[in-house]
Amino acid sequence: MPTEPTWLSPREDRAWRAFMHAHHQLAVRLRRHLLEDSGLTEADYEILAVLSEHATGSLPARELCALLQWEKSRLSHQTRRMQEHGFIVRETNPADARSSMIRLLPAGRRAIEDAAPQHVRNVRRHFIDLLTPAELDILTALNERILGHLAEDPFPEHSTPDEPALSP
Amino acid sequence: MPTEPTWLSPREDRAWRAFMHAHHQLAVRLRRHLLEDSGLTEADYEILAVLSEHATGSLPARELCALLQWEKSRLSHQTRRMQEHGFIVRETNPADARSSMIRLLPAGRRAIEDAAPQHVRNVRRHFIDLLTPAELDILTALNERILGHLAEDPFPEHSTPDEPALSP
DNA sequence: GGCTCTTGGTTGACGTGTCAACCAGCAGGT
DNA sequence: ACCTGCTGGTTGACACGTCAACCAAGAGCC
Hints:
The structure is a homodimer.
Chain A: H1 10-38, H2 42-53, E1 58-60, H3 61-68, H4 72-84, E2 88-92, E3 100-104, H5 106-126, H6 133-152
Helix pairs in contact in A: 1-5, 2-5
Chain A binds a DNA duplex through residues 41, 43, 60-62, 65, 70-78, 80-81, 93, 96-100, 161-162.
C-alpha cells in the first residue's frame, strides 16, 4: 500500500499557508487597529469583554481562566498590569481565601465601551462582510471541526511537572 | 436606512470565534509538537524551511524578510539566536556591504530534515485529513479572499516614525 | 486534632516579537 | 567632490506568554 506522502501537494500546501496566513494577518491588523484607536491590547480587550458581560462585573480568577482558556499565570500577569492601569482590581474572595476576585472598575467599563463599537466594525470590515451568510456557515463548520478534533485528541500530558519524582 | 448593528449576531459571533480559536489552538498544538520532537521553534522551522528550499542554502537577509513577511528586526534577533545554536551563519555580502547573507549550515540542514516529516504528518493529522478535497478548496478560497482584502486595504501608515518632524 | 493531597494564585526567569533609534553604505543630483 | 536621502541591518527597551517553582488555604481521612 502507498505510504502517506512526506510532503504536502501544491494544493494542500496552498490551503495550509492560506489558513495560517489569513488568520495571522487578520489578527495583526485587528490588534493594531485596536491599540491605535483605543489603547487596548487584545488581552486587555478579552478580559474586559468577559467582565463587562457579567452583571456583577466581578468574577473569580479561576472562572476567567476557564472562560478565556488561559493559563493561570498568564491571567495573573495580565491582571496585575491591568490593575496598574486602573481597569480592574483584584480582591480577596470572602467565600474562599485562596481565590481572588477580579472586579471591573469604572475606567475599565468606559474603556471597553469606547473600544467595542469600532472593534466590531473592524471585524465586520475585514471578515464578516467578505463572506456570504452561506459561506460564513461553511467556514464555521470547518473551523469547528478542526477545534473538535483538537479537543478530542489532547496533547500528551507531560508527566506532572511539579513532583520531580526522585528516589531519596 | 438601518445602520449597521453594533454587535455581531450569534451566528456571526460563532463564526468569528471559531475562526480565531481554530487557528490559535492549531498553532499552539503544532508548536508544542514541533518543539517536543525536534527542539525547533516555529520561527526556527520557518527560516530553515526557506533556506533549505534554495539550492545555494544562502539568501540575503532582505529576501528572507520579504519571503517570510517578517519585520527586519525580528529576523535580526532570530538569526542571532540561530547563529548561536549553530544552525546558520551571517556573513557579509560582497555585492553590497550593507547587506548580510544568511547561510544554512550542515547542522541546520540536518535539523530541518529531521523535523520536517513529523511536522508534515502533524499538519495532515490535525488539518488536511479532516477535510475533503472539495472542502479544502473552499477553505483556501475563503482564506485567500480575506488575505486579498487585507492586502488591498493596507494599514494606514503611521506618518514615518523615524524623522520626529520638529521645528528648530 | 493531625496528616496528606489537591486547588487557586503568585512570582521570577526566559524566549520571543515589536517599536524606535541608530548607523553604515549606496545612489542621485548639483 | 559634496550633500542629501534612502536602504539594509543591528541594537536596546519593553510587553507578552510559558514554564517551573512556590505558597497558602481548603478537603478528605485517620
